[in-house]
Design goal:
It catalyses: L-aspartyl-tRNA(Asn) + L-glutamine + ATP + H2O = L-asparaginyl-tRNA(Asn) + L-glutamate + ADP + phosphate + 2 H(+); L-glutamyl-tRNA(Gln) + L-glutamine + ATP + H2O = L-glutaminyl-tRNA(Gln) + L-glutamate + ADP + phosphate + H(+). It is a single chain. This protein has about 100 residues and is an all-alpha fold. The chain has a domain of about 40 residues: Histone, subunit A (Orthogonal Bundle). Helix content is about 40%, strand content about 0%. The chain is elongated.
Length: about 100
């Protein structure tokens, strides 16, 4: 499949790209080479290749979400610049 100048003009119109005559010529040549490369890839025999999501065999590296011990309230509030008996005190963002 070759790419014509009219094809590139249509694609640039769909992409709302305003290309000059010189740019249309450059794009036609470059996109034609890209399409040719993809055609080379389609010639490869991939019948025995299993579909995969990644080129590397990755395993899930996340830890299980298990509830553990938590800090006592006094320890969690110990370094807060402002606090009351139960919570951090922060400046009002939306007004009083």
């Amino acid at each position: 499949m070759s790419l014509s100048r009219a094809d590139v003009e249509k694609v640039s119109l769909l992409g709302r790209l305003l290309l000059s005559e010189a740019e249309l010529g450059t794009m036609t040549s470059q996109l034609g080479r890209i399409v040719g490369y993809v055609e080379q890839l389609s010639a490869l025999k991939t019948d025995d290749v299993q579909p995969m999501a990644h080129a590397f065999d990755l395993q899930n590296v996340f830890a299980d979400d298990i509830q553990g011990e938590h800090l006592p309230r006094a320890a969690a509030l110990a370094n807060a610049p402002k606090r009351d008996e139960e919570c951090y005190r922060v400046p009002a963002v939306l007004g009083e």
